[in-house]
Amino acid sequence: MFEHTKPIADVGDIVYIDGSQFEVLSISYEYHKEPFEEFDEVYYLVRGVNTGVSFTIDQLEISAVEKPKQSERLSIDDLLLDLSDWLALVERFGEDEYYRRKINEIKAKIKEASE
Q1: Strand, helix or coil at 114?
Q2: pLDDT digit string (tens) for 8-23?
Q3: Residue 95 pLDDT exceeds 90
Q4: Burial (CB count <10 Å: 0-12, 13-18, 19+), residue 94
Q5: Which residue has the higher pLDDT, 6 or 96?
Q6: What CA–CA distance (Å, rounded) separates 88 from 106?
Q7: Which of 26, 41, 50, 81 makes an SS bond possible with 45, Cβ 3.0 to 4.6 Å?
Q8: What DSSP assignment string belongs to 40-103?
Q9: Hey, CA dihedral for 74, 22, 53, 47, is it positive or negative?
């Protein structure tokens, strides 16, 4: 019986290809059955963490997988949304000491969370 290849990474994971980091954007699976053989392949659409370049690559080309830190990622995303909201208030109503203090607090939390 044919044993299907399982993906080694999931969407959102960081994978390493030739020493560079890439984020997995999607996963594709192909199954081939011919008269005398069966085989399958797993492909990933990845985007360079530092370059932003996207391409598709075979699972066999991936050297390592790193799971994202969900709690930190969600926290940073939430902080960025908060920052965006406060900046929109400044844009709409003008500079205010209270707004500026909140913006600076959020920027400090983002810096701390990303270190």
Answers
A1: helix
A2: 998 888 999 998 999 9
A3: no
A4: exposed
A5: 6
A6: 14
A7: 26
A8: EEEEEEEEETTT--EEEEEGGG--EEE---HHHHHHHHHHHHHHHHHHHHHHHH---HHHHHHH
A9: negative
CB-based contact 68:14 (threshold 8 Å): yes
> For residues 31 and 4, is the Cβ–Cβ distance under 8 A?
yes
Per-residue pLDDT of 26-55, as tens digits, reads 999 999 999 999 999 999 999 998 888 999
Region of 30 (left: φ > 0; alpha: ψ -120 to 50; beta: rest) is beta
Structure tokens at 75: 């926290």
For residue 13, the tally of other CB atoms under 10 A from its CB is 19
Residue in the block written with tokens 């299907």? 4
Q: At what angle do helices 97-114 and 70-93 cross, to 10 degrees?
A: 160
